Amino acid sequence: MVAYALSLLAGIVLVQQLTVLPNYPWLVAALPVVVMNAWLRYWHCLFFIMGILWAMLFASVRLQDQLPVALEGMDIPVEGYIADLPRQDDRQSRFEFIVTESPKTLPTPLKLSWYFPDQQLKAGQHWSFTVKLKRPHGTFNPGGFDYERWLFAEGIGATGYIRPNPKPALLKQAPDWNSITVWRQMLVDRLDQLLPDSPQLALIKALTIGDGNSISQAQWDLFRKTGTTHLVVISGSHIGLIAGLVYFLVLRLWAWTGLLAWSPPKVAACTATSFAVFYSALAGFSVPTQRAMITLAIVMIAIVLKRNTRPMNVLAIALCLILLYDPLAVLSVGFWLSFLAVGLIIYTFAGRLAKPGYIAGVIKINWVTSVGLSPLLLFFFQQVSVIAPLANLIAVPIISLLVVPLSLIAIIALFFSPLLAKALFLPVNISLQGLCWFLEQLANIPMATITHPTPSIWALLFAIPGILLLLAPTGIPSRWLGLVLFLPMAFPNKPMLQPGNVDMTLLDVGQGLSAVVQTSHHVLVFDTGAKFSIDSDIGKTVLLPYLLYKGIDQIDTLIISHGDNDHVGGAETLMTNLPTKQLITSAPQQLTPYSPTPCQAGQSWNWDGVSFSILAPPPIQFPSENDNSCVLKIQSDKLTILLTGDIEAEAEYWLVGTYGENLKADILVAPHHGSKTSSTTGFLQFVHPDYVLIPAGYRNQFGHPHKEVLSRYSNIKATWLNTADSGAILINASDDSWAVKTWRETEDHYWNFR
Q: For the whole model, what pTM was predicted?
């Protein structure tokens, strides 16, 4: 069974590597192949081909349920209801919205944002909105979160925001009690009333109803550093633990009653399944709980039918059922981590003659999962928590045996005795507070978390048999050789730039600017994109993931061109998380705590045979803050790059008058995102670039880049690229030549924007 499940998985994974899905005639043409393999009983090939066909069909249907291009940017009246628990911060509320009535045919659900809402939003409310929608689109960068893949896997065919006019109208406040989401909203409201001042309220919500919206970024960072993130969301381990506790408790109690007309194992299995369904419902039947429910159901059905089960076969059947239910589950990191974790535990415990005790078993599970999952964690996140085994050794029993059971009993008590519920939450609060203190002490240990460049897929493939050998039974000789297979991952083949060469990546940060420049031994960051809220900025979501992906652990110089939010927003996050030797900016008053150096024309330096020159602003500043942007010229033997910030016509006239022919550059990063007030004809004639790179957001409110400006770029025979369309733009200059690539060309998949 395991081989069949892996064959099905391989076929589905293969489809996810395609840039374009085959047309339906290919599906029809493949049917004779399916019939032939079934006739010849080539079951492995049959499962593989069925995986390919099922994934293609499922993905094709999902792609058809996306917003048509013709409806982008239109004001569309809709009626419907909020389908999940809204996520709210200091400036917006975000939620999924199911459309029940609209003059246009729209996908469902929609992912909507309401900026500065004047009412409290709750799940189940029915609203009338006017929305402006766009196709699934997100920033697209090396090492970054693929938002488009996430939207596709979640079945969201359009995103957008709510227009303030006409005013949104609440149509129905009274909820439909047959909705699970409404019950979850009711529990959120009751918990807010019962524990208004509890510092652990956010964690209690996450552990009981799967609502992690209130967990702060600092808390998420703490759990990430200590490798305990899986404990603060309702995951398969929580479902399995609750089901296991209920099963053994009911088994003993039912046997004690002597009512043996019904077998105690059957009664226990049915009761445990019911409790697992209840707990999964509290979590809104999220994808991790669905996986756990399917696996648990297989085990419980086997108990009811009195069938012997092999753990690995149970896991294989669960894998097949999940893939049949949703083949796009393979696009989720959690899918791979959860199945690998369970598979490793089975591999190291099942069939072994020596059965460890409880304490030894817990320690061994921590060791197995920490070592076994480390290659995947490095591959997906470029980080591994060294202290995770110790943190989990303490945290797992506290969360699993104390916090979760007491919290669930308290949730039930909420319906008939709030006082009892509050009393039960008291030890929960104390336990969580003590646990968080303990995790903070661990997180403060030097080198608690190791960061590492993203390993190649080949290094990952070598590490997998290394894990199996390392965790093999004691009788197998030379298990230590498994460590040798880890070496390609521990020491990645990281290409080094030669002196005189330069790389630049213009990151896709939406409506903003951020670029990373590398020479053989130095790193420069030019601008850091926007800040969106207290917990979200480009430094956190784009820059740091990119720098981790590249294995960069220090910034030599950070240049903030000027003080606009879309250029300076991520600076604080960046400098807090990575050592930064020097900060240069034309807005030093905004970054006083970091001892900035004022940016001024005439500053220059040389790194590894590559020269850097600040061309502007002049000593006598312009009236406009945009015109006072730092302008940086980077020059190697083969390539010249000009980064211009947000300068407009007046600064461009000054640059032409001051530098003239010395403005010539091969690559120009478009001034002010390609606005109509910049990229004047005279300036472009002196720079005369081969490429113009435009850092602009998709369908941004300013209309950047302007059509007239694009016409000017065409007039000088320059090729222009927009990050909104191409994702991050990568420039590499070697000894012989230089080249420009886009991330969408390099990493395009069939679900990505095009």
A: 0.88
